[in-house]
Amino acid sequence: MMLKTAIVEIGKKYKVYTEHYLNATADKTIILVNGSLATTASFAQTVRYLRPRFNVVLYDQPYAGQSKQHNLHDQPIRKEDEAAILLELIEHFRAQHVMSFSWGGAATLLALAQHPRRIEKAVISSFAARINTPMRDYLESGRDFLQACDRRNVGRLINSTIGKHLPSLFKRFNERHVSSLDEHEYQQMHFHVNEVLTQDTHCYVSCADAIEVPLLFINGEWDEYTSVEDARLFAAHSRQAQFQTIKNAGHFLDMEHPTAWSDTQQALLGFLQPVAKIPSQPRDLTFSGKSSVIPPLQSANWVRL
To answer: Can you give the residue ranges of the AB hydrolase-1 domain (predicted)?
Structure first.
């Protein structure tokens, strides 16, 4: 299995760092969409069970990770811009599937509503149809810390809220990642959070109304921020929606413990490849705070909002 990295130019406006895991036996390609403050590294656990079955594409947004050195950061990027980037990458890599995490779901729904011709199925994980009270409290606190470029409190806020069910080792990676962000990344996230708090989230269900491909929504049982109940509000708006709840898991799903990893794998592959036989347990993955098997090239950061 081969990894190819490349910088893909998007509309002569952005340059996007990509990782393409090529699988000679796979006939489908899936592209993964990060949440806020994240890079390709945040999908390390997910890639483990996708690589044996698909060609897998990861990418950094223009303001983040290994993309940021190739772009100007003179103005924030809107979710509509992120949707346009995703649509171009779908065409570039000829992807049939897309999977988003958390607020990556906003851009993904916007993109899917434009009926990309190649996409056959999509997975929306840890995303909900409305901003509930816990999420609003979290975002309002985060907005203040981001505006002040308060790295320490941003990291602490993430780990005490949406990341509270993560193992201690992953929490340390979160804090290390957040403390290394550039000022423009904080400005971008402040813009993003403010946009979420001030705009009507009805646009997301409107997008679901327009989407024609099958959708799978995956949420953690313990996730009070993008709750199972709030995600199921999409049921009235999506023609072919399915829903899966990962038991004993919070917002970060497959990163939290081995059973959640296995259950998320089963849900995802069962939706994308329903006749495939899926191993029930990870072979080399432990999640305790003292021991964690992490791919060396993908251990730099873990935050994904």
So the answer is: 29-258
Which range (38-52, 62-76, 99-113, 190-204) has the least confidence?
Answer: 190-204
Backbone angles phi, psi at 184, to 5 degrees: -65, -25
At 198, the pLDDT band (50, 70, 90 cuts) reads confident
Map residue 19 onto helix, strand or coil: strand
Looking at residue 299, its pLDDT comes to 37
Give the confidence band of 254 by pLDDT, cuts at 50, 70, 90: very high
2-10 and 14-22 as β-strands: parallel, antiparallel, unpaired?
Answer: antiparallel
For residue 79, the model assigns a pLDDT of: 93
Residues of the domain holding 232: 2-129+203-273
Q: Does residue 18 lie within any of the structural domains?
A: yes
Each residue of 8-50: pLDDT tens digit? 999 999 999 999 999 999 999 999 999 988 999 999 999 999 9
Domain-embedded: residue 34: yes
Helix and strand totals (H; E) in the chain:
10, 8
Please state, in angstroms and rounded to a whole number, the distance separating the CA atoms of residues 123 and 253.
13
Residue 48 lies in a domain: yes
What's the number of domains the chain is made of?
1
Q: How far apart are the first and last CA of the chain?
A: 29
CA distance readout (Å), 168 to 84, 225, 301 = 36, 20, 14
Nearest to 297 by CA among 89, 10, 43: 43
Helix (H/G/I), strand (E/B), else coil: 95: coil
How would you classify the pairing of strands 215-220 and 55-59?
A: unpaired
Cα separation, 10 vs 86, whole angstroms: 9
Q: What is the pTM of this model?
A: 0.89
Q: What is the CATH number of the domain that holds 267?
A: 3.40.50.1820
Beta bridge partners of 220: 246
